[in-house]
Design a protein that fits this description.
Layout lengths: L4 E3 L3 H8 L10 E4 L4 E7 L5 E8 L17 E3 L10 H6 L1 E6 L1 E8 L2 E9 L5 E11 L5 E11 L10 E3 L7 H5 L6 H5 L10 E5 L24
Parallel strand pairs: 4-10, 5-10
Antiparallel strand pairs: 1-2, 1-7, 3-4, 6-9, 7-8, 8-12, 9-10, 10-11
Length: about 230
């Protein structure tokens, strides 16, 4: 799964890397947690790419609203096109969620130990996501998102059996196109990332609390990076 990640680059950096037409204001985040606002990239009806804030935890348009029993922060690649909560968004409302890394944990006798997974070159990457609009009783819109996860690659598998889908740059346009209804083509993109392009290292257990959110969380325990 993906339960925490990082979004700390300036929006202008995302604009250059992901060819964005419009951006929004943002604060560097080093420990993004479920239900918080995250940055996502989607395509407008005019074919422009925009960077927007969305609630992390999908709220389907047909639902009664956010439900604490079902966080919907992750959608499984194997069922994303068929599960009622995700299938309509998969057809029409796909997005990219930029990130500089994500965290996973191993459980031991003395508690959970967090690890940070990033690109080996430390550049931002794009996780595959879906977004939704839900109208509240007062008419106000709540926009939300989920991150698609798949089987872990050989690097991440040592600590967890799932990982977010990291899309290839050449697939961005196809994934974002709301008029693309080729489910087979879209599903073929939802594969584990190349482990050779990623690096992983242990980080401080301060990450375990979402109240902690600073650049010091990126530091490797014992100075060891891998």
């Amino acid at each position: 799964m993906c339960g925490r990640f990082l979004q700390y680059s300036e929006p202008e950096i995302y604009a250059r890397q992901f060819d964005l037409d419009t951006i929004c204001e943002a604060t560097p985040r080093y420990n993004v947690a479920p239900t918080q606002s995250v940055l996502a990239i989607r395509e407008t009806d005019q074919g422009k790419r925009e960077l927007v804030p969305l609630r992390w935890g999908l709220v389907p348009f047909w639902s009664k609203g956010p439900d604490s029993r079902y966080s919907m922060i992750n959608a499984r690649a194997e069922t994303v096109s068929s599960k009622p909560a995700y299938r309509d968004a998969f057809k029409h409302r796909r997005c990219l969620i930029p990130a500089e890394g994500f965290y996973e944990w191993t459980a031991g006798k003395d508690g959970k130990t967090p690890f940070l997974i990033q690109r080996a070159d430390a550049r931002p990457f794009a996780m595959a996501g879906l977004w939704e609009r839900w109208r509240q009783a007062d008419g106000e819109l709540l926009e939300s998102c989920t991150i698609i996860v798949t089987d872990a690659n050989s690097l991440v598998r040592d600590i967890h059996d799932r990982m977010p889908v990291i899309l290839k740059e050449e697939d961005f346009a196809t994934w974002l196109d709301p008029n693309n209804g080729d489910a087979e083509e879209l599903l073929s993109m939802l594969k584990p990332a190349d482990p050779a392009a990623l690096a992983m290292h242990e980080v401080s257990r301060q990450v375990n609390s979402p109240r902690n959110d600073g650049p010091e969380l990126l530091e490797a325990v014992g100075g060891k990076r891998g």
